[in-house]
Amino acid sequence: MAPSRRLAPHLPVGSSLLPPLLLLFLLCVQFGGGQKKKENLLAEKVEQLMEWSSRRSVIRMNGDKFRRFVKAPPRNYSVIVMFTALQPQRQCSVCRQANEEYQVLANSWRYSSAFSNKLFFTIVDYDEGADVFQQLNMNSAPTFMHFPPKGKPRRADTFDLQRIGFAAEQLAKWIADRTDVHIRVFRPPNYSGTIALALLVSLVGGLLYLRRNNLEFIYNKTGWAMAALCVVFAMTSGQMWNHIRGPPYAHKNPQNGQVSYIHGSSQAQFVAESHIILLLNAAITMGMVLLNEAATSKGDVGKRRIICLVGLGLVVFFFSFLLSIFRSKYHGYPYSFLIK
């Protein structure tokens, strides 16, 4: 008897390839579904942001909105976030000034012909999103940050407010460097300068008209000298730098409430600092004038001695104060040279 054999069941050709093909099909379906879901989520986020932008140029966000629309993927848009503290109890005057410039910039973008869904302006107030400040280890306000479409913000995505200031033009330049979106800043018309100039011209014209029969005061050397000194004090104290950079008046530490009127860096200054420097320069100049008066006048010797002591005291005291400010800003002063 011939030995029995077990006959293998008849299998159709290619049946061994069914499990891999089925697995590949399922993966494609799952990936395609996930990709479609991702695209739908992105479309919903962009649509919601566009709707908010149509109502207000700067979108206010709390912790939940920030995590959903700024931090969480997917994103194909850039977000500029201003972290601030605008509530009156915070007493942050710098925050209010920076917010005004930020609103000007956001409105310039919102109502420009280049407006698109590639860039959004948002704001997170400390009293509405304290958890966001804690999450980012942020302890000062105001702060401007750029969140790119992909990845995490880098060091350059934080605006250097202390060095550059918060003028809308400077913010627009920084945004152009980070996003390639160029914003032309349009400011609302401000007629205060025109009105002030008109009042000044009217005042001078009225004074000349009233004194038309006696114009000798125009040739007064003391008056022209005082006017020239005022211009010199304004320029040497940094008023033009303030006009160009738009720095804050002062800085208040949100942790301890301490107000700083002198900037700690040699690359920046506060508006209050320029006023302090102006007064110090004026006091030193007054001391020099008194010293010159004591040396050149021919009056009573005792009176001249008093004028000399007062002038010397003004120069010594206020120039020492000026040097102390210089030392606090330019670390390492007084400088020393190593001679070999």
UniProtKB/TrEMBL annotation:
The keyword Manganese does not apply. It is a multi-pass membrane protein. Pathway: Protein modification; protein glycosylation. Pfam families: OST3_OST6. Residues 1-34 form the signal peptide. It is found in: Endoplasmic reticulum membrane. InterPro entries: OligosaccharylTrfase_OST3/OST6, Thioredoxin-like_sf. The keyword Membrane applies. One of its GO terms (cellular component) is oligosaccharyltransferase complex. The chain crosses the membrane at residues 191-210, 222-241, 276-294, 306-326. Keywords: Disulfide bond, Endoplasmic reticulum, Magnesium, Membrane, Signal, Transmembrane, Transmembrane helix, Transport. This is Tumor suppressor candidate 3. It comes from Podarcis lilfordi.
